[in-house]
Design a protein that fits this description.
single chain; mainly beta; Lipocalin; 10-stranded antiparallel barrel; 10 strands
């Protein structure tokens, strides 16, 4: 058996556009396709900034345009050499599910041994991912202030009394 080359694998994985089966109004992750520079901020339980780092985020259509994959890297690749304090190098896989009129999404964070599943929908001007029923801890990830050159992202944890912001990203389109 001959293994595919990296170039063949990437060509088989990637897609230029969304598949026509995904309704235009459901292409909620389209604005993120491309490369982004990040400022990532973490907040303690009192809401105080506890850490801040740079990062990078890359989004692409995959699997004949039936899904979107992203790769999230903090700190960015150029700053990862020799550091003992590497945070994450992970990925999300997403696909539109017409049966629920929403996107199913799975985050895989190998450095922290985490797999999380979400359902994503557009809510107003935001794209909101909420953990699937029974997933612990209950979380919500939201994309807001979505523009051609920037967006904001936040990671919130359900405390039983409300949502607490754990992390935010300020994203700018990479040049």
């Amino acid at each position: 058996m001959t293994l595919p080359s990296t170039a063949q694998f990437l060509a088989a994985l990637s897609a230029e556009n969304a598949h026509p089966d995904i309704p235009a109004g459901q292409r909620i992750f389209s604005p993120f396709i491309g490369d982004w520079d990040l400022v990532v901020s973490w907040f303690d339980e009192a809401g105080r900034l506890s850490r801040e780092e740079r990062g990078e985020w890359h989004f692409s259509w995959i699997l004949e345009g039936r899904g979107i994959q992203d790769i999230w890297i903090v700190p960015p690749r150029a700053e990862r050499g020799g550091s003992a304090d590497l945070y994450e190098y992970g990925t999300s896989l997403r696909f539109y599910d017409p049966a629920i009129e929403a996107w199913q999404s799975t985050w895989i964070g190998p450095m922290h041994h985490v797999v999380r599943t979400f359902i994503a929908r557009r809510i107003g001007d935001e794209v909101v991912l909420e953990t699937t029923q029974g997933e612990v801890p209950r979380m919500r990830w939201s994309f807001a202030d979505i523009g051609a050159e920037s967006f904001a992202w936040r990671n919130e944890l359900w405390t039983g009394n409300g949502w607490r912001v754990q992390q935010t990203f300020a994203a700018k389109r990479a040049r």
